[in-house]
Specification:
The protein has 251 residues and is mainly α. The chain is 54% helix and 9% strand. The protein has a two-stranded antiparallel ribbon with strand order 1-2. It has a two-stranded antiparallel ribbon with strand order 3-4.
């Protein structure tokens, strides 16, 4: 077992097609990390259970839930001392804090402030999602909408498989709407000229009057993407036909 662990630690990591050596620690995303964390932090789990604390831990990320801030401050000091003295580990003080569950995140999730809290997607996770979608639907990529949606769909399926666990469907519904508007803006940007936009909208079944009004719109692609004409020309069913997965089944 020790030989296998050493092989993991010394295997190196690949970057830009080249394998580099790792001097210390485990590469990010390495499956060995949570395994070693579970071995090393088993003592922490047992101590928290002995104290009858409510807690949740994955790898080296751990949340402990208590009834008041005063108790929380005391538990934080006590557990930090236990980790430092008994387990001989260093606690990252910058990432450690006493706060309400709604103000903290755990594995990309947080909790609502309701009397019966629900799982919600943390703000930072939502920001990363939008940033990644912007990268995949960038106006300078020079790929067809079909190729773009294929790459986007791969990312969306993986993201939905993880964050679909959230209990706030309205957030997923709004992300679906934002995602479709993003794709419509890409299509509108590809048309470039008003005459092309008018012809394409008519070809998609939009009335000539509505197509003419939209074609003459002087606002940018993002604003035009939210117009009734673009919604009629490229409804939800259109993106379904391209295989773009919905984040929320009700949208």
């Amino acid at each position: 077992m020790l030989k296998l662990i050493r092989a993991f630690l010394t295997a190196g990591e690949m970057e830009n097609g080249l394998v580099g050596t790792v001097e210390e620690g485990t590469p990010q995303g390495e499956p060995l990390s949570p395994l070693l964390s579970n071995l090393v932090l088993d003592g922490l789990d047992r101590e928290l259970e002995r104290r009858k604390h409510c807690f949740v831990r994955y790898a080296d990320d751990c949340n402990i839930y208590v009834r008041s801030r005063r108790v929380a401050e005391r538990v934080k000091r006590s557990i930090t001392g236990f980790i430092t003295r008994r387990l001989k580990l260093r606690v990252n003080e910058q990432k450690s804090a006493v706060a309400r569950p709604a103000d903290r995140k755990f594995l990309g999730f947080s909790l609502t402030r309701a009397r019966e809290p629900k799982r919600r997607i943390a703000a930072r996770s939502l920001a990363r999602f939008k940033q990644r979608v912007r990268e995949l639907t960038g106006p300078t990529r020079g790929v067809s909408i079909e190729q773009m949606t294929k790459e986007l769909s791969d990312y969306l399926r993986g993201w939905r498989g993880y964050f679909g666990f959230a209990e706030t469907p309205l957030v997923l519904e709004r992300l679906d709407q934002w995602k479709r508007q993003r794709l419509r803006s890409v299509i509108s940007r590809q048309w470039k000229r008003g005459k092309v936009r008018f012809r394409k909208l008519c070809d998609r079944g939009v009335s000539r009057n509505l197509a003419a009004t939209t074609a003459g719109n002087t606002h940018g692609p993002w604003h035009i993407a939210n117009s009734p004409a673009m919604s009629r020309a490229f409804p939800i069913a259109y993106f379904d036909s391209l295989g773009v997965p919905r984040l929320f089944a009700g949208t």
